[in-house]
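Hi everyone, sorry if this is the wrong subforum. Our group has a chain we'd like a structural model of before ordering constructs, and none of us has done structure prediction before. Sequence below.
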Amino acid sequence: MNNHRTSSVETYQNFCTEDLRDSYVLDYLFTAGELQLTYTDLDRAIVGSAVPTDSALPLPAGDQLRADFFCQRRELGVINLGAAGTITVDGTSYPMANRECLYIGRGSQEVSFASDDASSPAQFYLLSYPAHADYPTTHAKIEDANKLELGSQADANERHLYQYIHENGIRSCQLVMGFTVLQNGSVWNTMPPHTHDRRSEVYCYFDIAEGHQVAHFMGEPQETRVLWMQEKHVALSPSWSIHCGAGTNSYAFVWGMGGENQRFDDMDGFPITELR
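Answer:
Right subforum, don't worry. Here is the predicted structure as tokens:
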């Protein structure tokens, strides 16, 4: 497990591109045959990936947790961004098709990830936060998600949002998780932008066509910066930072949050004309 520290609101303004990316972008996940974990300083979120090929990949606790097993004091959300696979939790197997979700509750001891076909592996995206209560491990298919249709073609932000782990869906301690799909001809997400001081957020961009990128905007509203994101790059968004994006083509992204509450609409918006 890697340790990752982000910069402060006072220092990011002076960063060059390389320093900014080192602080807020994880671009090394989803390596075939490996399970990778990164422990961040954003509400103690752990971001990771598992791409099993010839054999199953067990989930280790890591020295950073000082725990007997990973979920001893944590909850974990997983969304499969690849081909079909299986997650096994304490002897129970959960088949996972593309874009399906599994919530793994606190107290789950043995977790492993496998692919149905090593030549076309599952690509599991992992997001974990500390947990202080037990909720049951729960699997959800796309049709189980709460689907919201947002935006419009006229504003180039028509998108479908799928809520999996939230206060009216899969129960959790603090983790909120789902994904958003931009419709053809639309490129903007989360516009107008917002912050939510009560929790941090993590974005994992996927289904970006070859030769295209997404410009992820971050920073204070009057001091914004841009991070260019490619397929399955992860953007870390502190509570003080806006987060929005525009792609050179349509795309999708997994969003996940942890912090003070689970209210999806608890946010502080900023007028587009005030952005700098």
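For your construct planning: The domain at 2-274 is CATH 2.60.120.10 (Jelly Rolls). The mean pLDDT is 94.
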